[in-house]
Amino acid sequence: MSQKPADTTGLQQAFSYPRIVSEATPDLAPVIIAEIKEKGPISFSHYMAQCLYHPKFGYYARPKSVTVSKEGDFITSVSVGPLFGKLLALRLHRFWLANGSPSSFSILELGAHDGSLAGDILSAVEKIDPSFAKSLSYVISEPLPSRRSVLEAKLGEKVTLISHPDELRCKIGALLANEVLDALPVPLFFFSQNQWHEALVALDENDALTWDSRRADPGLSQNYPEGYVTEGSPDFTEFLAPLTHCFQSALHLWIDYGLDQESLYHPARTAGTLRCYRKQRSNAHPLDFPGEQDLTADVNFTAVENASSELGLQVHPIMNQSRYLTYCAKDWLLKNPDPKEISQFQTLIHPSQFGNRFYALELTKGTVDRAFP
After folding, report:
1. Which portions of the chain are predicted below pLDDT 50?
2. pLDDT tens column, 100-142
């Protein structure tokens, strides 16, 4: 805790939604409250990690809860329909062909959630090229046992489940991660009285979660308005490093929403990008419903690119999802596709829906033919 409490007005304005106290106490709340009582205020990054990944009460450890769908808390490109997986399958097939159609080729998916994207890709691969399907081994890395059980029940022997990327070593393949980076826990900072502070999660006199702070140095300038709130980046180098050892040669594909560093930390972006999703609404306070709502922040793609480059990966130009999927769909569009698929495609690339909000970042390792566009 800081020796002299900072003015947390900026935090209160960034997350000005009324606090909810009438609903039942989430199962995770007593765990967090007990930790704060024992150790004192905790960083927001640690709080976010508990909310999302606590092995029993975390948001992603609730396999029976419907979170990603029109009936859940939020939707993704996968929710639009199977075309998204089909287009990614076409992209991976092109990479496989360009690199000699190897008899053994692995796809490693991170953040597979309920396995819908894996199912869509595998179904598409069977129709695209039986030889590709025969060579393919689909691997999902999932650290949460409860989530692995869901994936095993849904996909069975179609996939191989591992708990950590270190368990995979292959000659050539592809890594796929759709909306993974935005779910990595982030520190929360605010600028007050010409000083940067890190937001902490503490308890008030009634043992309710509240804000506290300590002085910090997020590596940003002092030229920000009073009350400015933003997120720091996760340690992308630590996160990405194990993934660089999975393949000798590979294509890495990251699809997510985010910004370049200059845009992310623009002085006009005074409330940061941290959001909470619950029942298709984003107007919830991050300290409410711990473990029962999604917490997410825009990805700092500049930081991802820098970390990837330092780890020896080749970084290719990032592009919005609209442009990327249009490239992936080039041959498919010439084959008079089904109107239902065309409708899905329009949603995926529409500027006001997924097209301009999401970006695709490709990285390659080793001497490979990227085969793009």
Report:
1. 1-2, 69, 72
2. 999 999 999 999 999 999 999 999 999 999 999 999 999 999 9
Neighbours of 175 (CB within 10 A): 25
Amino acid identity at 297 = A
Closest CA to 325 of 350, 300, 307, 302: 350
Other Cβ atoms within 10 Å of 223 Cβ, number: 8
- How far apart, in whole angstroms, are the C-alpha atoms of residue 254 and residue 358? 10
Query: pTM for the whole thing?
Result: 0.94
Written as one letter, the residue type at 364 is: T
pLDDT at residue number 64: 64
Domain positions in the chain are 77-184+234-365
Q: Which residue has the tokens 């308005």?
A: 225
- Do 140 and 161 contact (CB within 8 A), yes or no? yes
Question: Does the 77-184+234-365 domain belong in CATH 1.10.260.40?
Answer: no
Q: Give the count of alpha carbons within 13 A of 119, CB side only.
A: 14
Distance separating alpha carbons of residues 129 and 79, to the nearest angstrom: 25
| Beta strands at 314-315 and 299-300: parallel, antiparallel or unpaired | unpaired
Cα(136)–Cα(78) distance, integer angstroms: 21
pLDDT at 69: 47
Torsion of CA 300, 242, 163, 296, to 10 degrees: -10
Letter for the amino acid at 30?
Answer: P
Two tokens, residue 33: 């409250």
State yes or no: cis peptide before 5, omega within 30 of 0.
no
SS3 content of the chain, % helix, strand, coil (to 5): 35, 25, 40
